[in-house]
Amino acid sequence: MQALVIVAHGSHLNPGASEPTFAHADTIRATGAFDEVRESFWKEEPSFREVLRTLDSEAVYVVPLFVSEGYFTERVIPRELRLDGWDVEDWDSDGTDADHVALDAADVEKTVHYCGPVGTHDAMSDVIVERARSITGRDDLTDFGLAVVGHGTERNENSAKAIHHHADRLRQSGLFAAVGAVFMDEEPAVDDVATRFETDDVVVVPLFVADGYHTREDIPEDVGLTEDYREGYDVPTAVDDVRIWYAGAVGTEPLVADVILERAADAGADVAAAIETVRERTRTDADATAGD
Amino acid sequence: MASDVAALLDAAADGIDFDGLVVEDTTYGYRFETPDVSERGIDASELAALADGDPYVANWRYWAETVGGRGTARRAFLRWIEGAGDGADGDGGGDDSRCDDSRCDDADGSERGDDPRRRLADLRDGGRIRAWGELRLRVRLTDAGAERVYDVRHRDDADADPRDLDDHRDPLDARDLVKYDDDGRYRPLSTAPSLPHGWRFVGLDGDALVDTVDFVYPATVANWHREREGRLDVTHWRETAARQTGIYDLVSDLPTDALAWATEACCADSQCLKRRAWDHDAETELDVPRGDGEFPCREPCSLFIAAAREFTQLEGEPEETYDLRLTEREFDQLGELVDAVADDRLDEIREADFDEGANRYRARYLRAKRGADLGVER
């Protein structure tokens, strides 16, 4: 038997924090690719400490629904899962290319395939594109600018690396007229996003796992979509004569389920058929949304 | 799927001794015994005739094939729900656990031993009931035979009119159902005794029952099972605190006295239905009630750690003497306010009950008069 565990931050205060995790887990459950699929949280239950014992499977694929490599993926999650012999060097990553490592967990007789986070997988670039398409309702975005928004450094330099990683890839893809990385806590700042591009339209996609205070309140106000987030804003909203298409947290995009499966597949899980199903389903969903 | 009879003949070679059913293949022919039948030296066709439609054979098949999973928490929990012995072969010496649902008058009360005949009769006739935290779990036999069907609701809703309850069949629904309490407040602690009312899960099979319970009270079944088997891996406060990093690094500085106050504050049955199995360390017990819950708490949870961070910071502050002039009843009122908040009683205090120190007008009066002295001036 094989199980998938999606590990995420969760929240003691924000009931919406776990919703994307549940939604992606359900998408993957529906494919039947895993005998068991379970969500686990740092701040909610089951905790990282106790999730493995709830599973009957001998092989467990653990995929962190986190944006970047760093404190949580390198220290907290391996420690709390009791992964014997974990050494961050095993990921051999410079900050954005962690893949996977197979380890034993101390409290259960299982092999844990511990994967890199969702946010730094190359397939996440596709999700950003999908998000941009669904929010604008267009397939062709070559006249649009794209701003990928990150939180910023705080105590983790990899946080910014993940944003730049996707911005660079998308710039090279030629799908957008221009692509920029912007941040809440460092330069270049998200506040100036309307004046940073020469295009008439700019899609703003925050690389966040879930919608919360940052994506619902801070960023819309910082960008100038609204004076007060409680009053709401239109999509698009004109700011300094630029139409800003604000997408909200990319982690809520249904196609993220595909990235989770890609992580498990990279680690050896037999999920090829499920990946096809999920791509078909989540992209169809997105098209349906765009057509509304 | 093969018939019960074919499956029985298959298994008879190795012998069966399960829930009152004994089948052996001896040199003198088959032996077939149940609480109602005892035959020895019979041939295969006689065995087949006896087995066909026999409730003990059907029961054996349910546990052997539908549930399976010998030694798993899932199986042990399903056995426990119906009060079955859970020895390795299912013929263990009864079950000393109790049906502690005060409303479970259609179960057979306390200290039931495992009499398979009585158990199957109960399961045919109204079912058996267990409480698990605030959940009421019921198991019955389906009309067709030995397959079980389970349902789950809030134990307070035991006597509710089904038309007043929202029906659910998919265990995944439980995640959203239990996210908020009856007042719409987010429940960050799944085992807080604030489960909302007004719903029921019906028509669940065994797997779906266990999944539903695991979504309402995550990991409680796994830890309960480990405890029953004598292998619960308790992690005490000192070890949990020592492993914290980042903003929680400081919780190791929480004094032992303060840890006891913190467990009294956070881990009492009025706040969490888990039974605290951890202490300061293996040698230093906390002199605080552990709670009476069915399932254990094997380690301080994330909510406790987050609260402990605040408590640690509070304990790090120096005590000072304040010169504050209050009347005797004003002093008493401060205590009454703390009490009312700590016991979550503010909703119960009537608008015009001016005797009550935590009455809103009384609190506003105190603030108007003494707010400046208390640092809460409006």
From TrEMBL, chain A:
Pfam families the record matches: CbiX
Transmembrane segments: none
Signal peptide limits: none
Protein keywords: Cobalamin biosynthesis, Cobalt, Lyase, Metal-binding
Example GO biological process: cobalamin biosynthetic process
MF (Gene Ontology): lyase activity; metal ion binding
SUPFAM superfamilies in UniProt: Chelatase
Gene3D superfamilies according to UniProt: 3.40.50.1400
Name of the protein: Sirohydrochlorin cobaltochelatase
Native organism: Halarchaeum acidiphilum MH1-52-1
TrEMBL record, chain B:
Ranges for region Disordered: 88-120
Source organism of this protein record: Halarchaeum acidiphilum MH1-52-1
One Pfam family hit: DUF7348
Gene3D superfamilies: 3.30.1360.190, 3.30.70.2320
InterPro entries linked: DR2241_Fer4, DR2241_middle, DUF7348
Basic and acidic residues bias: start-end ranges: 95-120
Domain DR2241 4Fe-4S iron-sulfur cluster binding: 229-310
DUF7348 domain mapped to chain residues: 2-68
Residues of the DR2241 stabilising domain: 122-228
Annotated protein name in UniProt: Uncharacterized protein
